[in-house]
Automatic annotation (TrEMBL):
Protein name according to UniProt: aldehyde dehydrogenase (NAD(+))
Enzyme class: oxidoreductase
Domain Aldehyde dehydrogenase: 64-483
GO molecular function: aldehyde dehydrogenase (NAD+) activity
Amino acid sequence: MYDVFNSSHLYKREYADVEESSESDERPRDGFFKDQLVCFLGMKLLFCRFEVSRARWTCNTLFVPASTGETFELFSPFDGKKVAKVAEASAEDVDSAVNAAQAAFPAWSALSPIERGLPLKKMAEKITTHKSDLADLEALSMGRPVDGYFDANYAAVHFNYFGEAAYAQGHTSLNTPGFLNMSLRQPFGVVGIIIPWNAPLVFFSKKVAPAVAAGNTVVLKSSEKAPLTSWKLAQWIEECGFPPGVINVVSGHGQVSGNAISAHMKIRAISFTGSTRTGRKIQIASANSNLKKVVFELGGKGPAVIFADADLEEAAKQTEFSINYNSGQTCMANSRIYVQESAKEKFTEVFKKFASQRKIGNPRESGINHGPQADKVQYDTVLKYIALGKELGQVSLDGEANSENLTVHPVIFNDAPEDHAIMKEEIFGPVVVINTFSSEEEVIAKANDTEFGLYASLWTKDLERALRVSKKLESGMIGVNWGLVDE
Ligand code: NAD
């Protein structure tokens, strides 16, 4: 059993002093910055020079228990065994983390992008070296199979990329007589980060790497269902050379620590990935506190549109992978599939063949590509939707569920009414609906009839149609002849 009692991980800065000054006009290109407009009156000023300071640190790195001494227990979804005891951060702990981050910000943001990049690169190395351990921690906590665990490579690529990406370009005015207007890209200060359980390492890297590369300091809250990889990375922060206070990791539930981050007056921006329901709460907490900038990646009910001229074998293979990978717990998954009528039979047959071949079992064992749902709550939710779908009577693959190890075999529903709950709500399980369409206009209307808009895919060999339909699908991302990562 892991004792993550000390996972509420705060850095305290004890002393920082201005030691040297340097010139820097470099700012991050991507991610977490704000634009600042600076208008100079008078064209004589052609060049401006910023004097910034660096700080010298003498400080302690701390792994501290929750101030209240509270902990929560984490159980393996597959065998029910206790895997960890985890610190439950309080609002006071969040406050300490924010104070540490705020104290670290002036010196960290004054470093050059190269200097900020060095510890990011080291973190990439650490993640790569320990990828099997990281995979195992995720398998233990939320049942993600170790086979096909791409997250460590993904995270290492992100840390590496942002280790070199922090040279931002601002804008200047082209022709404003008498003025020189410049838009500078500046870090926010302290950034709050809240991540979900379905791909914790992916979201840790996707949010922390660009935020700190841009000169921000961060307070990250891991998910209560999968805190172990965040805890592991927290152990490497100091070793990689991040100054104390730059990355603070707290563990705990949405209530209290998540809410304390969303409502904190000193946090200037928040990056959140999780459910739409929680996203709403965070937006409200932001509005009720300091109107911090909020950046969301929320839920999905992604459509996949399969035209009859597509490579049906490939479309079926990839869409099956998309919905059943990670036991259907993927925000980008195509949970609604629309197949052109003439291709329905062949597509469904191949889809069913792949879905039936899933190797279901212990996620820590090699050769398994379908583990349990992340916990009992998730399992019960999925079963509730399966029961609702079965009332409709159109099931072409009816998987079993096992309440002992929380596994759910893939389920395929057909011809569900567009307004039914299984078509409208995110199930987050291995459950797909395959419906049909006859015309392009009809399928675009059906695909867009949703409150979600995260990801959509379309499958056709007709490039003109691919471009036309892509533009009409109301979705943030569109995959053309591509579903999800397939190892
Ligand atoms: P969730 O919203 O329940 O929890 C996400 C995080 O928010 C957790 O760390 C949780 O502790 C925290 N939280 C809960 N209540 C809070 C509150 N009131 N204030 C602040 N923080 C709070 O989501 P989940 O169950 O962990 O993840 C599944 C959801 O995430 C699905 O809806 C899925 O589609 C979505 N998701 C989206 C993406 C994406 O990129 N768009 C990626 C992965 C997951």
